[in-house]
């Protein structure tokens, strides 16, 4: 269930869209690489050595970019039970705490990912012939986007932008699916009554 458009920074909207498309292209490319690996292994009986590490590296990119997009679009994992019972002002505080925690987590991704890049940059991935640091660059890139998108939500909320209004009006995720198909349920119930 999609929420109505919310106020955002236009530049970050373009960055978000780009990250989403790059993640999608990465997913398709990884699928093609894995398909090629299976074909080479079982049909040609000669599996290339670069396919598995290449697919894993692409997977790292689209997972990290997708996670950042999820933060911006508020589709990340959350523990929402308390939000159902607190007043609206309490919801805003809990969401702010959540965004701060996400920001700190993203900063940790950048910091520790950067350390891993530095530690492994001098090594070489033999099957790809590139620096081992490239294995951890997605962690830094995804973390930087998580920080940007969480910071955007924090700043917009502090400025009084109605970024939580759509969330407050939306049905809880646990019943959203049922609400989307409520007309089908009513029609089936009416049809069942007619057949009795």
Please tell me about this protein's structure:
With 196 residues, this protein is mostly helical. The protein contains seven helices and two strands, in the order H-H-H-E-E-H-H-H-H. A two-stranded antiparallel sheet has the order 1-2. A hairpin with a 4-residue loop joins strand 1 and strand 2 (130-131). Helix 1 (10-44) packs antiparallel against helix 2 (51-72). The longest helix is centred in the N-terminal third of the chain and has 35 residues, at 10-44. The protein starts with 9 loop residues before the first helix and ends with a helix. The relative contact order is 0.14. The model is unreliable at 1-5 (pLDDT under 50). The complex comprises the extracytoplasmic solute receptor protein and the two transmembrane proteins. Part of the tripartite ATP-independent periplasmic (TRAP) transport system. The chain crosses the membrane at residues 18-39, 54-71, 92-113, 133-151.
Secondary structure topology:
Layout: H1 10-44, H2 51-72, H3 88-120, E1 124-125, E2 130-131, H4 137-158, H5 165-169, H6 173-180, H7 182-195
